[in-house]
Design a protein that fits this description.
By secondary structure, the protein is α/β, with parallel strands linked by helices. The strands form six sheets. It has a five-stranded parallel β-sheet, covered by helices on one side. It has a five-stranded parallel β-sheet with strand order 6-14-7-8-9. Strand 20 (about 540-545) and strand 21 (about 550-555) form a beta hairpin.
Length: about 600
């Protein structure tokens, strides 16, 4: 293998697994260290630059970072990265003086459709550069689905108000209660660019017998949640069935419990493990005495003179073919009818673009979705960009934020006369953490503390008030304990071949057997000759130039815990611990324009 080019922006970025897994590439270990130092405002601002909504995401993020966390490789649970983000938001000082200001107007006008996370990210990135951003939203306040579809007991309005106001106060023109019914008309208003962040506003229907006859007590989940959010709905029947296994279904069942549902059940066609809902969402529902019944397919709504009385289910089981593809087939058991007063249908969401005329230059695919470049977020119309659920269907807030950053960069490059396809390099900082011969500026002792639980409000109290936040967040003592579980994966072990005397002291002291000195060879062969044979080829090997004996040093980045023992033990300083910080390119970033990926 060739020596590893550790100067490539992606190399150490990929080693910081949590940051690499985050769509917005938030520098996770950096802000966790700041929390451990009590620098909550600094930690908040690092988050705000990348993920835009630290207080919101600290409560609601889908946490793609946590399954990637290296702590999960040495014990059962990863670091509570998401809930530590909330700590930065909960304990920060007034940070308004640290926010950017609206830039001097450059004469360019941007129309932004929808007031959700993707749209607000675009506005936040472009307004400081002098663009006049106009956000059109059908609702009276900004936030989109963050405000309308996430229950208040998970995300209080005060948090949404605070973090949307940080953006709107950058000189954004927010046109509330203004629904866009024609993209062609908007294109005729001479905006320099248009961003579509209208979400996936339509809940998927369930067309089975009895749907029309019993319609009065069958509700589409996302519409029902919005109605509750706006105060239009304040009660529900005592017996409630929620159909669906995603996070929306979990929000529906927990909301129903608070509006009078005494017997609330979630009924899912798949198995429990295959449900799309996050594991913690399922846990929270079951904690509130909501059973989840699996492998049951609704086949009919039962009604009596138009009044819903129950739902009939066919029982199924999973079967797998030779390729491992799963099919649900009848189990042979008798159908079961479960009585209920109301049904909430949460079987998925889909996009609806009746307001985009098909002759305005935007091509649609066979699923009636706009054709969007996942790199630039551009459509087939040069001035129109998409992001969030409107681009690729329902995902989550952090993905919408990432789309917003990419779209804003594209719009800025387009209107600056630059190539939209060319994506500038990120800014990368690598700095030694050595303070003495064997002293480091961070604590590299690995604690064996288990994950600290987030305190919850008493269940009896929580179920009485639909606006009482259930999760109370970490206090400072718990936050410090959880922060200390972070393994500092952004502090990299950097090897200098000319200083190495091949004493193998680093090999002897490494607790994970991740360092091997051996003859070079092809990658597949080399991976099998490591001290601990490599099981995960998706993570790189760190290969040195040839050493004096002709051997090479090979470190398996998948196994390394960044404990620093190799650097402490090395008698010549061939190993160094260097903090790596990558600052992802956003609109207005001053850096070389090279078409080279950093994500």
């Amino acid at each position: 293998m060739k020596p590893t080019d550790i100067s490539a922006p992606d190399y150490f970025h990929k080693v910081v697994d949590c940051q690499w897994a985050c769509p917005a590439h938030t520098p996770v270990p950096e802000y966790i260290r700041l929390i451990a130092e009590g620098r909550y405002s600094d930690a908040y601002m690092i988050n705000w630059k990348s993920n835009v909504f630290p207080g919101i995401l600290g409560r609601t993020c889908d946490r793609p970072c946590e399954p990637a966390c290296r702590r999960g490789r040495v014990e059962e649970n990863p670091v509570a990265i998401c809930r530590l983000k909330r700590v930065a938001a909960d304990f920060k000082d007034d940070i308004t003086s640290r926010l950017p200001r609206a830039g001097a107007k450059n004469g360019k006008r941007i129309a932004i459709i929808g007031g959700g996370p993707a749209s607000l990210t675009v506005a936040r990135d472009l307004a400081p550069l002098g663009y006049h951003c106009t956000v059109f939203d059908q609702d009276p306040k900004a936030g989109g689905m963050m405000r309308t579809q996430i229950p208040k007991f998970r995300l209080p309005d005060s948090v949404v108000d605070e973090e949307t106001d940080y953006i709107l106060n950058l000189g954004i023109e927010f046109k509330a209660g203004n629904r866009i019914d024609s993209l062609k008309k908007l294109l005729g208003e001479n905006y320099d660019a248009i961003f579509v962040g209208s979400g996936a506003p339509r809940g998927r229907e369930l067309e089975i017998p009895g749907r029309k006859e019993a319609a009065g007590n069958i509700h589409i989940g996302i519409d029902w949640l919005s109605s509750v959010s706006f105060g239009h709905t304040s009660k529900i029947g005592k017996r409630v069935i929620v159909l669906g296994g995603g996070n929306t279904a979990m929000d529906c069942c927990r909301t129903a419990r608070r509006l009078g549902g005494e017997d609330v059940k979630v009924i899912v066609r798949s198995g429990f493990e295959e449900m799309k809902a996050s594991p913690w969402e399922k846990e929270d529902a079951m904690h509130e005495d909501i059973p989840i019944l699996n492998f049951m397919v609704p086949v009919a709504f039962v009604h009596n003179n138009g009044k819903l009385t129950g739902v009939t289910f066919q029982k199924v089981k999973a079967e797998y073919d030779a390729k491992g593809k799963r099919s649900l087939v009848p189990s042979g058991e008798a159908d079961e009818t479960i009585n209920c007063d109301d049904v909430l249908v949460a079987v998925g969401q889909e996009n609806a673009f009746p307001w985009i005329e098909r002759d305005c230059g935007i091509e649609f695919d066979k699923w009636d979705m706009p054709k969007v470049d996942p790199r630039t977020m551009g459509s087939t119309h040069p001035k129109v960009f998409f992001g969030g659920d409107a681009a690729f269907g329902p995902k989550n807030i952090i993905w919408a934020v990432a789309h917003g950053h990419d779209a804003a960069l594209s719009i800025h490059r387009l209107l600056s006369g630059e190539d939209v396809q060319e994506r500038p390099l990120p800014e990368v900082h690598v700095s030694s953490q050595k303070m003495g011969i064997h002293e480091w500026s961070y604590d590299n002792d690995i604690s064996d503390d288990k994950r600290f639980k987030v305190p919850h409000r008493d269940k009896v109290v929580a179920l009485k008030d639909i606006r009482a936040e259930v999760e109370l967040g970490y206090d400072l003592k718990l936050a410090l304990g959880e922060a200390q579980r972070c393994l500092n994966c952004d502090v990299q072990t950097v090897f200098s071949a000319p200083l190495c005397i091949e004493c193998d002291a680093c090999v002897d002291i490494c607790p994970m057997d991740c360092i091997t000195f051996t003859q070079n060879g092809g990658e597949a062969d080399l991976r099998q000759r490591l001290k601990a044979p490599s099981q995960h080829p998706d993570q790189d090997l760190y290969v040195s130039p040839d050493l004096k004996t002709g051997r090479v040093m090979v470190k398996d980045e998948d196994v390394c815990l960044h404990c620093g023992l190799c650097a402490e033990r090395c008698p010549t300083g061939a190993w160094d611990m260097q903090k790596y910080l990558i600052d992802m390119t956003q609109a207005g970033t001053s850096c070389p324009s090279k078409a080279r990926s950093a994500a």
